[in-house]
Amino acid sequence: MAARNYTPVTEFFLIAFTEHPEWGLPLFLVFLSLYLATLLGNAGMIILIRKDRRLHTPMYFFLSHLSLVDVCYSSAIVPQMLAVLWEHGAVISRARCAAQFFLFTFFASIDCYLLAIMAYDRYVAVCQPLLYVTIMTEKARLGLVVGAYGAGFSSALVRTVTAFTLSFCGNNEINFIFCDLPPLLKLTCGDSFTQEVVIIVFAVSVMPACILVILVSYLFMAVAATQIRSAGGRAKTFSTCASHLAAVALFFGTLIFMYLRDNSGWSSEGDRVVSVLYTVVTPMLNPLIYSLRNKEVKQAVVKSLSRSRASRRP
After folding, report:
1. pLDDT tens digit sequence for 119-174
2. Where do runs of H (alpha helix) occur along the chain?
3. The whole model's pTM is what?
4. Whose C-alpha in 140, 152, 279, 293 is 20 to 30 A from the C-alpha of 113?
């Protein structure tokens, strides 16, 4: 076996997409546009929910937190990615790398929990409408959200501490869009088996549990929808379930592909494309999928625009 340079690594060099310099500016403009759309869409949704009293319901309470988390989640990754594209590579210290990994894991975990909570909320609304008000009280929904943030923080803290107790040596180039676990594990020296097991256990404890809650909730909703006498009501319920499940499948599918597989099969080219889906595309699509199909949101948007036009008139 060839000898390896065991000089400790104190900083990393992000080089995603730098092997194609001609792609730099086009990709920069595309990702900047998607990022701005994410900020505007999610911030607009939060403001709309706060302003319109008709949206002061449990479903939109959870949606406002999902929008907030998506803004933070995207902001932890995309600005750094834009810097890499603009400068054709970027140096990041070990401390900043750890902070970015923590923030990404923190907000991604909360996203998982919130998607599961929103699925449960829809289950109660569709399958137990008479008990909805007594189940989804203000105290209950606040407790669910606080629990999601707390669980996300705990998971992110353990995974970050575990990952960055590893020794990194030799090559410090990360051919990826941010400091993520799979490319970091490629730079480790020595035995990392124990740390990888801890990281995988926490990943397994978050994703499959949330996926199970989501699938069971939507399964019960689908069964309830078949008992609706109105064809229009059935179609509306199935349409809503299908769009929500599409967003869930995109988010969880890409995360599972990245984290719940053998790291030896990691491919930088393919995985960079997958990472763009769950860091850039999904946060942008969530406001559209979870809200603009709803009549209440459309009415709130129209009302807000009408007020804006009226205020401009002399």
Report:
1. 999 899 888 888 999 999 999 999 999 999 999 999 899 889 888 888 777 678 88
2. 24-51, 58-75, 78-87, 94-127, 132-135, 138-163, 181-185, 193-226, 231-259, 268-276, 282-290, 295-312
3. 0.86
4. 293
